Amino acid sequence: MDIRKYLPILEWLPKYEKTQLKGDLSAGITVGIMLIPQGMAYAMLAGLEPIYGLYAVTIPLILYAIFGTSRQLAVGPVAMVSLLTAAGIGSLHPESTDQYLLYALTLAFLVGLIQFGMGVFKLGFVVNFLSHPVINGFTSAAAIIIGLSQIKHLFRINLPNSEHVQEMLVAIYQNIHETHMLTFAIGVGAILVIKYGKKIHSSLPTPLLAVALGIALVWGFDLSSQGVKIVGDVPSGLPTISFPSFDFGVWSTLIPIALTISLVGFAESFAVAKTIQAKHKNYKLDSNQELIALGIANFGAAFFRGFPVTGGFSRTAVNNQAGAKTTMASVISAVLIVLTLLFFTDLFYNLPSAILAAVVLVAVSGLIDLREPINLWKKDRSDFAMLIVTFLVTLTLGIETGILTGMVLSLGMVIYRASRPHMAQLGRVPGTHVFRNIKRFSNLEEKEEVLMVRIDGPIYFANVKYIKDKMDAWVERKRQKLTTVIINLESVPSVDSTGAHELHEWILSWRALGIDVCITATKGPVRDALNRWNLIECVGADHMFIDDQSALEFLDKKLAKEVQERYAPYATQCD
Amino acid sequence: MDIRKYLPILEWLPKYEKTQLKGDLSAGITVGIMLIPQGMAYAMLAGLEPIYGLYAVTIPLILYAIFGTSRQLAVGPVAMVSLLTAAGIGSLHPESTDQYLLYALTLAFLVGLIQFGMGVFKLGFVVNFLSHPVINGFTSAAAIIIGLSQIKHLFRINLPNSEHVQEMLVAIYQNIHETHMLTFAIGVGAILVIKYGKKIHSSLPTPLLAVALGIALVWGFDLSSQGVKIVGDVPSGLPTISFPSFDFGVWSTLIPIALTISLVGFAESFAVAKTIQAKHKNYKLDSNQELIALGIANFGAAFFRGFPVTGGFSRTAVNNQAGAKTTMASVISAVLIVLTLLFFTDLFYNLPSAILAAVVLVAVSGLIDLREPINLWKKDRSDFAMLIVTFLVTLTLGIETGILTGMVLSLGMVIYRASRPHMAQLGRVPGTHVFRNIKRFSNLEEKEEVLMVRIDGPIYFANVKYIKDKMDAWVERKRQKLTTVIINLESVPSVDSTGAHELHEWILSWRALGIDVCITATKGPVRDALNRWNLIECVGADHMFIDDQSALEFLDKKLAKEVQERYAPYATQCD
């Protein structure tokens, strides 16, 4: 056992170089500065006091630095997971902010447990079953829900918590007239600063700039007395130890959302880690170790007053651009947050909530993807349908139902495809020994007495009925003169017991109709299976051919021989 | 619309012939005689008075005769469905026999609703996902559970109702000393008569013979006063109209078992119908119409004091052997039962329950299949594992959990297979243009600079990771001198959007490593997809080849040209 597999930090720390430190320092500070407003904003999105967003990026960041296999991934609160946290806890109707926090810690703990468990049992492959269009539709819908959830801070109006777009839109329509214009102006100003400030200088930390401007404005003009909501007291000092709830009633309510967070969080995190890793290639990603690392980071969140975390898209990109070489950058970010917690929390007293809402809005606006649905509409209608259904279900029936629908759609698609293998009726390209699908090429040579079929996929219980039905239809169409069915198995990788049983039955039932069966181009494992199930004996060893051409030549010879035998008596008479 | 599709009776009734009536009459009487003891026995197995077994074969039989597409299928109570009925109703803890009956009617109604609905929505294909080994393991286990459930009647001992084998065995062990020897002797005698009576004459209705002998013995020697349990009063007359419960509390408890009965019942029925149809071929089976017909038959059971019914294995075989040509045979069986209900019910007063238990035991003993597991152990270990797991789970955790496990296993298998397409690294058969898997053939020609890969399956979201990981491992092994990857797509039937995205990324990442990519032997739909996703442009139209040989020749020429160009300056110098 190689300990470095489980503690990837040992891969790089022993040979850590000064040149690497330069990049890590620059990236660590950049991301740290970014984390201050984002952490607070996402905590607010999750329904918690802003300070918990800062707690959530101390211990978890350091834990990921030790256990994670990506060297640039920036772990912490992200928009989608924070929204899911709020939705999950909301359904438990907590009675106090203490209880709310307890549920948030419990959720982090459960997410940790699930991700750690999935990693240990090597279940990382599960996210493969969230297909690309499903993730895309889900993300766009979630971004819209997140955006709408920030309207109440931006307009300073009362809105109920909901994750159903139709309810939110109605509530916004009913309350929009109560908009607090000063708050709204600050929010819109912040959006402009964050979004277009980059144009002045690309490395300007615009969210922090908006935060600083907001604080200065509120402080300078005493805006809080004019109704602008501010963050208020932010306690100073490091997070103390906390414990999740071990009440199984709470667990059973939180587990569905914990599962959703685990999967969605890991999918987001691993996708960005893969993209960045592809640019470096000096280390390897391990999906199961990633799950373990994220699980441990979430344990850190659970025991140090955080809430569920994962690898974030935008911060990871910034971290990489700013030159991060190893997870030392994350450690430096964490140290920066620790210093903030120790010495600078007082500064945030006058921070307007609308500015944090602006941070969230700008972050999620980039997640709404219009190009991909248009692209899929043009190129792949069934993938487009998956995207749109997931999008609409998420938008109208909620996040959890959305991701579940997406998974069911994806798995349904796998099963649907698996149960309908591609099949082709073959004809010969004139003058060659090449056989092709008669549906895709015209002028192919076909014999009236012979049906040639190629099956493209394994023959097994889930698809035998489909295969038989299709062949039956083809046999029916040529019934008049048909004497032989040639089954080309070149694209069949395996035959299971049900497939073998059925194949046997097909052959017998065709023989009963006076139709002979030849099998061509079997692959090794298929030939083995046919042999095991005595199918070669049933077909007849002389009816098995290396390719379609040999089978046809055999049939021609057989026919010739039959003709010869029929005329043999007359031949002797002539002698 | 062809009305005969929905009323298959119209297919044969208008041209019904005298010769057909002869066969139908013989078969109808034979099955009718068989139905009297079996119906009563299965009613007892379902936890109902024996008379309900006779009710369940009147209207349902006639309804199936009208709507069913099989001409030999004998519908009625069967062992497995009766056992499931008892298990489902038991979990509702009915307080009286009236309530028990109400639940049985409700169950029949729900089964009818589910099967009818599945038929209308053309969901007949769902049973394909119960694989052969899963059905085999499930049936053997259910047969054992059914057999054990009859022990209490055969030994006349008290046993709790249970569907967990371990509990049943413990209870039997604890109570076996209370065996009523006279009852036991009658039961064993009946088993011998039913099982070996056939040896005297193959068309002897041995179950009815056992029933007659039992009645005669009890009546002649007044055995009921000596403790032999008898059936007692059997009310005479036809079943009156009944109504299922429409209490949604009852429905929600019964729905899981109703779903199980619908699927298992249909699977059993359709399997036997298919086997028999294959011997006749003068009509066609339609799985969705079969579901509709069985659904309507169950409605008949629900409204005429029956309980869930389906097409039975043994009775159908007997029906066919006895010469049934159309479902007229079923109508004749039903008429026979009606006559029995009207005139002969008094005869059954003295029938010992142990004889009905013997009827069930002999019927289910044939369902325990030892050959198939042994066969699978030798020929297909993964199918063997599915069989054994389903068998053990059904035996120890109950029928419902068993069938659910079987379905999950089957679907899991579909997904597992779908996510791991077969792949081969290719080499050239020396002296030919034929390329084969280097793992299955030795002495194949391979170039150090070229990796040739064939993917056997669609490229889509569920398997892209597996494909990439496998290719990466192969690339890694040849890394030293590798210049080109040739991907053979001859067995790839389709590429979805995720597959296209990934393929694009792979190509870019290999290029970044200095490895070129060629694609060969694409099928029509795949070429279309590659074109739509601009992948042909990305690979380069001159890097797409009709077959592997052309790709290799292209590479040779390219190499030669590169060499030529490198030496070109010297060449001119020489001139």
Order of strands, main sheet of chain A, comes to: 4-3-5-6-7-8
- Class based on secondary structure composition and strand pairing of chain A: mainly alpha
* Shape category of chain A: elongated
Number of helical elements of chain A = 25
Quaternary organisation of the protein chains? homodimer
* Biggest interchain interface, per-side counts: A-B, 55 and 54 residues
> In percent terms, what proportion of residues of chain A is strand?
5-15%
* Residue runs with pLDDT of under 50 for 5 or more positions of chain A: none
| Rg on CA atoms of chain A, Å | 32 Å
The strand count of chain A comes to 8
Largest sheet of chain A: 6 strands, mixed
Nearest-integer average pLDDT of chain A: 87
Ends of chain A: how far apart?
A: 85 Å
Helix percentage range of chain A? 55-70%
Task: Domain count of chain A, please report it.
Answer: 2
Quick description:
The structure is a homodimer of 575-residue chains. Chain A is mainly alpha-helical. Chain A is 62% helix and 6% strand.
Describe this protein's structure.
The structure is a homodimer of 575-residue chains. Chain A has 575 residues and is mostly helical. Chain A has two domains: 18-411, no CATH class; 422-574, STAS domain (Transcription Regulator spoIIAA). Helix content of chain A is 62%, strand content 6%. Chain A has helices at 3-6, 9-12, 18-45, 51-55, 59-67, 79-90, 97-120, 132-149, 151-155, 165-175, 181-196, 206-221, 248-280, 287-303, 313-321, 328-343, 353-365, 371-379, 381-397, 399-419, 464-478, 497-512, 524-532, 535-539, 548-574, and strands at residues 75-76, 310-311, 422-428, 435-437, 450-456, 484-488, 516-520, 544-545. Chain A has a six-stranded mixed sheet. The longest helix of chain A has 33 residues, at 248-280. The interface between A and B is large, with 55 and 54 residues.
